[in-house]
Amino acid sequence: MTVSRPSTHTQDGASPASGSPPGVDPSASQDAASATESRPVKVSTRNVSKVFGRQADRALELLRKGGTKADAQKLGAAVGVYDVSLDVYAGETFVLMGLSGSGKSTLLRLLNRLHEPTSGQVLVDGTDITKLGKADLLRVRREKFSGMVFQGFAILPHRNVLDNVAYGLEIQGVSAAERRRRALEATALVGLDGWESYYPSELSGGMQQRVGLARALAVDADILLMDEAFSALDPLIRREMQDELIELQARVNKTIIFVTHDLDEALKLGDRIAIMKDGRVVQVGTAEQIITDPADDYVEAFVEGIDRAEVLTAANIMMPLKATAQLRDGPHTALTKMRRFGISGLLVVDSERKVHGYLTSENVRAQLDDVDASRDRIESSRIGPAVTVSLDTPLQDIIGYASESSLPIGVIDASGRLRGVVVKGAILAALVRPGRGPDDPTKSAQVNTEGQHAV
């Protein structure tokens, strides 16, 4: 997520934030998901199952009757994936996440039929690839998939960087000149320009993984599959590779399906995340949806240790505005609004809802007490600065801003329009992990936010 620093607005003009997503209502995580789902479906599965072993069909029937993975194992069958249906949208980074043995890597290999499904469908751009013959399947793999990036790098030790990057194109029969051109472009894209003649033994782990990534990008297909691609790297290099993948995705806009067992990595990379357990998908959603509304106790335990301040944003915790002051309002109108809602100040906006500052009841009364002051309009000298943040500002940053000021924080969209407000009570409520019963601790926190909308 891009962090927009707070903007200070005064009567002299509004300063719109940059890098923010389109304006949303307080249910921001749902809107983020809706934005993703407005794209065409790129890859989908329908009731896909994969059971290994000679008794696969019997085991599958047992599962359909309510049996468990352990029951299937008694038949000598291993359940990799069971009854998974999901959609992956064009241009999104979709993360498959779970513990070891959850089925995430098996599911990834079902998407391009490296594993043959025991039952169900896999559709790529609407084509059911489970029905394709060998020649057609090979064509789809070459045209639609950019290969796979593995944890173990899987680069050829006897080839230099450029030849490794060009290997997939060579297999496809691309001419030498075209191979070189595309390989050079992909090498530069991952930051390895100048290293083309080096061999894998001369590269660090992070650089070797960049070679694998460049090889997949050189093929220039729509879908990139990544299986624990950064898991073998040292923590510092791993974080750097995650950052580079985010930047790279902003440029190439591929459909990336990324497998990881690391929740922090999933939250950082994924537009949406599918959490798996025992071969099944137990929840699909954005990071915010999974953290704030876990589907069951398993998911809740998974996310229990996550710092919510690093994941939630202003859009997730902002509250509806009770009232605002318009530039055209007179002092009596502004004071009436404050009295009506029991608040001590108002954000001042123009006709396009762009913030021009903050007006306190004290300043309004001072204008009314001044016999020489205007009675028709709020005077600009009475309007103080307002602190605003963009919709995607992390809660962690908002906490810092709130500690420096007692005023509410306005939340604006990419056009600078006011969409909501963050008050200290909402910050406290967001930091409390939601409960599941009548004793949900957030309920009291939410009650405590009443009367604090000084907006």
Write up what this structure looks like.
There is one protein chain. The protein is of the alpha/beta class. It folds into 2 domains: 7-26 and 318-448, CBS-domain, CATH 3.10.580.10; 29-308, 3-Layer(aba) Sandwich (Rossmann fold), CATH 3.40.50.300. 38% of the residues lie in helices and 21% in strands. It has 20 helices and 17 strands. It has helices spanning 28-37, 56-64, 69-73, 104-110, 134-144, 161-165, 167-171, 176-189, 205-219, 235-252, 263-269, 287-292, 297-303, 308-311, 314-317, 331-341, 361-369, 395-404, 424-431, 441-448; strands at 7-9, 41-52, 78-89, 93-98, 119-124, 127-128, 145-150, 223-227, 255-260, 272-277, 280-285, 325-326, 345-349, 355-360, 386-390, 409-412, 418-422. The strands form 4 sheets. It has a 6-stranded mixed β-sheet with strand order 7-8-9-4-10-11, sandwiched between helices. It has a 4-stranded mixed β-sheet with strand order 1-15-16-17. Strands 3-2-5-6 form a 4-stranded antiparallel β-sheet, sandwiched between helices. Helix 8 (176-189) crosses helix 9 and helix 16 (331-341) runs antiparallel to helix 17. The radius of gyration is 27 Å and the shape is elongated. The chain starts with 6 loop residues before the first strand and ends in a 7-residue tail after the last helix.
Topology:
Elements lengths: L6 E3 L18 H10 L3 E12 L3 H9 L4 H5 L4 E12 L3 E6 L5 H7 L8 E6 L2 E2 L5 H11 E6 L10 H5 L1 H5 L4 H14 L15 H15 L3 E5 L7 H18 L2 E6 L2 H7 L2 E6 L2 E6 L1 H6 L4 H7 L4 H4 L2 H4 L7 E2 L4 H11 L3 E5 L5 E6 H9 L16 E5 L4 H10 L4 E4 L5 E5 L1 H8 L9 H8 L7
Parallel strand pairs: 4-9, 4-10, 7-8, 8-9, 12-13, 15-16
Antiparallel strand pairs: 1-15, 2-3, 2-5, 5-6, 10-11, 13-14, 16-17
